[in-house]
């Protein structure tokens, strides 16, 4: 088992100027992680011509700390991205594949689509869009295979979030270089029971995000700042692994039972100080994995 942390986990400290992305690599090493996960808007928030230099800088920092780069996570939308120009969006995503290879990352996670806006006049069901989306995903996966980078999508972004939807997409893509990133917390954004969802997608999981949320039902008092609504209107707030309502230990049991023994990356979205939140989360994650 390899433990990683998404550098997005430290985003609140980065925004406050308390840490730089490279400082976060050092913090991850101090806390005992094996690897870090790079993220487009954290590590590549710069002009395109500077991205290769940023990648090399990040890799050098990780190497210095004895850490691997477990994955690169990027946003993508094969319907609406790049002003609706699918070929342009495909080329943009492939450029990130090149960066993943430069980082030495064995995986890259990309989104699929946010879907068409309901009031756009173009709205279609997820299932009807699968053939179009699968073709784009397959093209990226084939390109990435040449670079020895596995591509993945995540249950993320509300439209492509349910376990049944990502399972259908995975089946339609049907490419050996494409798998799923299973985020155990994100299923709650689609109001799906995390344990049941993980049980469905565990056989296809090539990488895992460990995440926890505090959940309050729609009819409860609005918790205010820090919370957001699920697709069904329930309130969610990110928190330290083990402090929320995600059955993290049960999800780990289901993953282990399916034969998963790859990399689990903490993705912390809580309001707690991120360095402490990540530290406590890692301790809990290690404990739960040893017990299942």
From TrEMBL:
Q: Name one GO molecular function term.
A: isomerase activity
Entry keywords, A to Z: Isomerase
For this protein, the record's InterPro entries field holds: IolE/XylAMocC-like, Xyl_isomerase-like_sf, Xyl_isomerase-like_TIM-brl
According to the entry, every stretch annotated as the Xylose isomerase-like TIM barrel domain falls at 25-287
Q: Which domain of life is it from?
A: Bacteria
Q: What protein name does the entry list?
A: Sugar phosphate isomerase/epimerase
The source organism is Candidatus Acutalibacter pullicola
Taxon lineage: Bacteria, Bacillati, Bacillota, Clostridia, Eubacteriales
